[in-house]
Amino acid sequence: MSATPQSHPSIEALLDYWLDDSDAAAIEAIDDHLMQCEPCGQALDDLVALGEGVRAAFRSGAVSAMASDASLKRVVGRGVHVREYRLPHNGSVNCTVAPEDELLVAHLETPLLGVERLDAVVTLSFEPDVQHRLQDVPFDPLAGEVLWLPKFDLVRNAPAHTAEVTLLSVDAGGAHELGRYTFHHQPWRGR
Amino acid sequence: MQALGTPVDGDSPEAHAARRIAAAAPGEARDAEAELYRLLAPRARRFGLRHLRDAHAAADLMQQVMTLTIEQLRGGQLREPERVLSFVLGACRLTVMDQRRGERRREDLLQRYADALTIADLHVAPRLDHERVADCLERLPERERSVLVMTFFDDQPSEAVGQQLGCSAGNVRVIRHRGIDKLRRCVDPGRRAA
Fold first, then answer.
1. Which residue range(s) make up the domain with A132?
2. Does any domain span residue B121?
3. Which residue of B has its CA nearest to A138?
4. Quick one: B25 and B84 in the same domain?
5. How many domains does chain A have?
6. pLDDT digits (tens, 9 = 90+) for A91-127
7. Same domain for A90 and A156?
8. Residue from A8, A10, A21 whose CB has the most chain B CBs within 10 Å, to mutate
9. How far is A138 from chain B (nearest CA, A)?
10. What is the ipTM of this complex?
11. If you average pLDDT over every residue of chain B, what do you get?
12. Shared domain check, A166 and A121
């Protein structure tokens, strides 16, 4: 170990270190540095706490996200009770949320090959004049579907309503519709 | 690179405390032992969290390494007390290897030395206001929010997230860094951009 710390790692380097995105030499160097430098250690603690905050916010249903099938499988593997709905291209579904559900996922089947940028527009029947536009959502072009995880706590407490999700392919020529999906939501009424 | 702190002096507080322990009769330098524990236990715990990915295992590692270090200093077996940082880092690495091999050496050490050790309060990063984090997450662009959620739900490296999103690991790292920078500044508005 050197007598004094080498240059302090950047936040990006600390994050790479924490998430296993560093090579063995970089990990060893940061291990060495953190043993000597408490401010950098506390910066790492803050990053880890932020990551825990992201995880907690997601688990509480307070944030929406687009995900992949692989990440969904990891969530299920952790014992999270997931309610899934699969919608064919331009399909619709009757849906609800049960008390034991912890996560809600909609699989929206759509052709994605050749799509440069994907946007989604969400409208809710109880606020018909409002459009929620999600810009540049991440997707795997080979997956043939988009996984939408809406704000779970919002859906759980919502009255009966209809939600419409429109997927848009966006390129230099403008936006054109890829698919339209309709969710007829009812509050849980028991089995 | 962003500077996060100031360099540690050659004659560090850790070395000073280690010398005081080594110079005193065994167990007579309680203040120095508490000081050394306060300084180094969080670092050992941090090392354990990074390499063992388990809070309980990290706490065990911290306790084991600190009891070993102080016992070695008390007994004069650490011949260069000023090199205590190297000793602790080496002990952390060995302990992680031991734990990975499923050895039970830590329990022996704890049984032998735990009662003799003065435990000081540790710095632990404060828990964040989750509503604030959620609010800040919702303000991020969709791509950044989704990458952060996929990253932190399971502490996934960029390559794994990239495979799931059909993009490169480098691209994920760029999005992740941009997102985390915005999130940090939103959660703590007094913070400057990284």
1. 61-185
2. no
3. B143
4. yes
5. 2
6. 999 999 999 999 999 999 999 999 999 999 999 999 9
7. yes
8. A21
9. 5
10. 0.86
11. 84
12. yes
